[in-house]
Amino acid sequence: MKALTSTFRGLLKAFIFLFYLIVYMITSASIAMVVRDRNKRRRKFSANASRYCGLIARNALWINLKVINKPAKKHAGSLLVANHMGFVDILMLAGIEPMSFVTSVEMRETPVLGPVTELAGCFYVERRSRTKILNEMKRLADSLKDGLNIVLYPEATSTNGDKVLPFKKTLMMAAAEAGVPVQPVVINFRKLDGQEFNTENRDAVCWYGDTGFVEYFWKTLRLKSVDAEIEYLDIIYPNPEEDRGVVAEKAHAMISAKFVGAKQVSSVAEQIMPDLETDPT
Predict the structure, then answer these.
(1) Of 45, 70, 110, 163, which has the highest C-beta tally within 10 A?
(2) Does residue 139 belong to any structural domain of this protein?
C-alpha cells in the first residue's frame, strides 16, 4: 500500500510539474519572439523562470523553503555563488528572485533540459578549454556590469550532499572584473518526508554520479515533503588585484561552515558487525 501511495503521489506531482513546465515554455517562447535585445530578453527570461520555479517548488514538489538573511536591497549586478546538489536546489534558488544561472555547454545539448535552460536565460560555458573559459569570464563580467544577477555553482558539479567540494576559481573573477560583489549562499536540506537529511534518503534530492535524470527526479516526485533552507551569507567585495584564489577560498570557507551534510546512517550489516566481533562465543 505504501508503494502504491507513493507512486500515485509521484504521478500527481508529475502532472502538476508538467502543467507548469508547459506554461513556462509557452510564456518563455513568447518572450523570445517579442524581445529582441539580448540583455532585456535574458532579464525577462529569468523573471519568468523565477515565477514558475517558485510555483513548481511549492505546488509540484511540496517544498517548504526557509530563506534566511536575504538582503532587503540587492546590489544591481552581483555574482551569487552557492553549493550544489541537484536540480531541486536550482528550482529553490531560482524561485526566490530573478537570476541567470551559469551551466555547462553539455546542458544545452541535453534533450528537454537544453531548451528549458535556454529559455531561462542561462549562460553556457566550456570549462574544459582555458581559452574559452577566459572568454566566458569576460562575457559574464560584461553582463554583471549591465546589472544582471548571475548564479555560479563553483564546485562545477552537483554532489551527494556529504560536503562542499573545492571551488573552481576562474569564473568567480568575473565579479572583480565587473566591480560587483560576490554573494555567498548556502543551501541545506533539513528533512525529507519528516526524516533528517541522511545518506539513505539523499538520493531523492541529490543528483550525482551516473544516475539518469528521470530516475533521480522520480524519487523526488515520490517524496511527501521537503524541508530546506537557503541562507544568504556576508557579501564579499573582491579586489581585481587580489590573487584569484583568495575570493574562492573565502567563499568556500563561509559556505562550508554553514553547510549541514547528509547524516551518516549505518546499514543493518554495519550495526550487527561490531556485536559479532565482540561476541565471546
Answers:
(1) 45
(2) yes
